[in-house]
Design goal:
eight-stranded mixed β-sheet; 8 strands; alpha/beta; globular
Length: 280
């Protein structure tokens, strides 16, 4: 009965995709409901990677953010960290392991399926909490977090101004905003202006070459994941879209990075009241 209901729901969603009525969030929430095995991250990655394991390039992107945080903020047992759009939680888990014991870590995502996976996988981690919510209306009080993290998600929100205002609102005055994402290169200066207008200071560092390298080195693993874990009816209708989403070489997404039209950036931003001159 459950299998029949799941297939019926899938057919309804696929019909909405074909007819153009399916929302981006609706599609991604359904994709998070699929069995992706031990895959816990889905960013484009950063190369070279210092660690090992199949997701080393994705984890390296978080490691690069951790490097920006180290030495710029005194962390303690009372530190509170929020990742906006945590997905399946792999990157946030890595960040949590680098924090002092007792630090509280919160992952937020719009996808109920992603949050359910995170809660199952980390049921024994007392310092990890997962919350359903939207990035443009964060369900937290003002100045709730010492560190806010956003990796490869804000480009899909549709309102950079509102997103950055929410980050500033929940960030404590001496906090840090760890931010990694991409934009069309000509739109990057506007994003920097919006960040400054929101009261967040920091320089966007271009890591596009590292991302292109990661996509190339990790391409075979990503292809295997799509072939093995994406049901045939999804591959038939949205397979090309998923390949673009995965940044596979030869797709428009990959070529825009490689050709320089699209820039991937990394930064550690500081609320203006406590921004140290020259801080990245």
């Amino acid at each position: 009965m459950k299998a029949r209901m799941a297939w019926t729901d899938s057919r309804k969603l696929l019909f909405r995709i074909v007819t153009g009525w399916a929302r981006r969030e609706e599609l991604y929430d359904r994709l998070y409901s699929l069995d992706w095995g031990e895959v816990t991250t889905n960013n484009y990655g950063f190369a070279p990677a210092e660690g090992q394991g199949p997701e080393r390039f994705q984890m390296q992107l978080y490691a690069e953010l951790q490097k920006l945080l180290d030495g710029s903020l005194e962390l303690s047992r009372s530190t509170r960290v929020l990742e906006i759009s945590c997905g399946r939680g792999g990157g946030l888990g890595q960040l949590a392991r680098g924090l002092p014991a007792g630090a509280q870590v919160v992952g937020l995502d719009f996808s109920t399926n992603a949050i359910a996976f995170c809660r199952r996988r980390n049921a024994d981690a007392a310092n990890l909490t997962y919350v359903c919510g939207h990035a443009l209306e964060l369900p937290f009080k003002d100045q709730s977090f010492d560190v806010v993290v956003s990796v490869e998600a804000s480009h899909a929100y549709g309102n950079d101004r509102a997103f950055l205002a929410e980050v500033k609102r929940v960030l404590r005055p001496q906090g840090r905003f760890l931010y990694a994402d991409y934009r069309t290169r000509r739109k990057v200066p506007k994003l920097e202006r919006l960040a400054r207008a929101a009261g967040l200071d920091g320089q966007l560092r271009d890591i596009t070459a590292n991302v292109v390298s990661a996509c190339e080195r990790d391409s075979e693993r990503r292809r295997r994941i799509i072939q093995s874990n994406l049901p045939w009816h999804y591959r038939w209708l949205v397979g090309a879209r998923i390949e673009r989403y995965a940044g596979l070489p030869g797709t428009a997404t990959f070529e825009r990075f490689r050709g320089g039209d699209r820039m991937y950036f990394l930064t550690c931003m500081t609320p203006r009241e406590h921004c140290a001159e020259g801080h990245l």
